[in-house]
């Protein structure tokens, strides 16, 4: 029996908590069983259950609504009941069919005729509306399978047929959709054509491989196509027929959850707050406001009030990833992790940490009227201040202050430690408290010195303070700066970035959440309701010598990983996407080509390049790879390296390469990418027992450049980063390098005159330097800008 601190009267206790039932067994052999009942929680649970049932019905019959159903069926009943017996309503062909239905229910024969007529009218109206709804949803799903609109050139006018398609989609989409309204109307992710995938793959590696290597790869590809290729393709096609997405489950499991490497740096990512804007310099106030805003966003998700994203305000995206933004944790396993999403809890709380001390902060307070309500920002600020004072006055004991280091460790080792030291007692109780929290707030006790230092503190901290298994962690610094870190398996950066943008704009939206002195509005203000607050619960841990040794081992490993990360934030604030768009070039393509040129100068060779795209035009869509290295991009880089090449020729090749990149990006978005298809074929080959040389060779090629564009302006109408809100733009976010001798680059076009990039690599690699690569990118951007100026002299020599 494990010992646990359980109060002054209990020297040791075993705590087993299941919902509202608590069993306490003391050393003297007595037991205490406590069953608690919370009326507030019960009412909220019933309300939530009713809401879910109603939403299931609404989303099933959408675009019809219960109001429309009630109105139409009532009108039908009244019209039929009041009609004369010889009218069409009573004796027409449709009426005769309904009277035949009446024979299917013998119990109705004893009812009055008018009641039977009313019942059959209700049944007919319901079936008719259900049929109309089914046809409308099917037509919308059929229309959404069309993706030709994606390939319309920027600035070009759509054809009459395309205009008609847009009109039809808008007409069938209904009005006032909820968060998951369109989920049942989205088409399934298609299985790409095998010949197209292999052809596009070979084109993508042609600039990278020598002729001998290319011929060898082509020979393996031809062998694959003649033998196991078509069988694996057939398997994927059959799988696609019986699943919403043939890829979703495999991608989550084999790419993320089965990975045994630490998720710190290797899998997680971070997002920075405003570069030149900090709404308050009070740490407690900033933490309270961000937490309050996150809770509001969670409310929009839980009650499906968040508007679904629609491209061009017409074409819906899959919103499934939003289900697990909050109330989610990743649990380690010896061979495979798993994700747990805790259901909506009306007594929700947040896990808060500072200096290694962990707290349970309730998000509900009892108002002066005796009713429970959500805590307001000024109330949360008081709680944050108390946590800061408590952690300063009573620091965490040695060992307990580094519990979180286990979550950044090797996944198998963390699973073993969890099984050995956290299976019962106070450790289990505290662990469950952290994991069931709707999110994690970390109050850092050090302020960042610059953007680069801030980025490093967000992605890994000190290696022992951040709970890397939690879906979302907000980090707030003493000077009021902030940022966030996210676990990657449950959702992609586009989804979490949307949440972070909404939260940070909420701080200043419609008057904002702060007073002029930096405190949250209502802080110690008699004009606001002042209630007695229950102090946050300080979590306890039992750390014996053996667990202390394991924690220290995890921290040492984490520290090595942190120290090896070479991270730099690049700032280019003299020009940006405004100039690029004037040249009729995609800003994304322009920056991708700049990175190709920069890497050529940095390493003297080309790099297999990964750029993340999205496939959320399909149900349960996640990401697809854009292979940015192409024959066209290689030709452009060669022209920049050739001093004898004219600027006119360079511009021509740049335009060709940019057009090619845009085509590749759009193809990836519509499900015609290469890499997810190859991944699916490989998983199928392993499951079916095929040993494919081609798939192994294709998938083992390292992504020397792993890149992604950080999304922005996903919150329509809340801010304008290109104009009045320029001062509040972020420098984006970043992630660790994928290859040991490669770079990870996440970039953002903050506004028309600013470009930021978060560049990562490993210090242990002699081939890379993030600062050097940053300089090469800046130089490449300037050189590419110069070629549009007549008479400019562009030096293409590598320094």
Automatic annotation (TrEMBL):
GO terms for molecular function: carnitine O-palmitoyltransferase activity. The lineage of its organism: Eukaryota, Cryptophyceae, Pyrenomonadales, Geminigeraceae, Guillardia. Belongs to the carnitine/choline acetyltransferase family. The active site is at 488 (proton acceptor). Transmembrane segments: none annotated. The keyword Lipid metabolism applies. It is a multi-pass membrane protein. Residues 189-777 form the Choline/carnitine acyltransferase domain. One of its GO terms (biological process) is carnitine metabolic process. One of its GO terms (cellular component) is membrane. This is Choline/carnitine acyltransferase domain-containing protein. It comes from Guillardia theta (strain CCMP2712). InterPro entries: Carn_acyl_trans (IPR000542), CAT-like_dom_sf (IPR023213), Cho/carn_acyl_trans (IPR039551), Cho/carn_acyl_trans_2 (IPR042231). It comes from the Eukaryota. Signal peptide: none annotated. Keywords: Acyltransferase, Fatty acid metabolism, Lipid metabolism, Membrane, Transferase, Transmembrane, Transmembrane helix. It is found in: Membrane. The keyword Thylakoid does not apply.
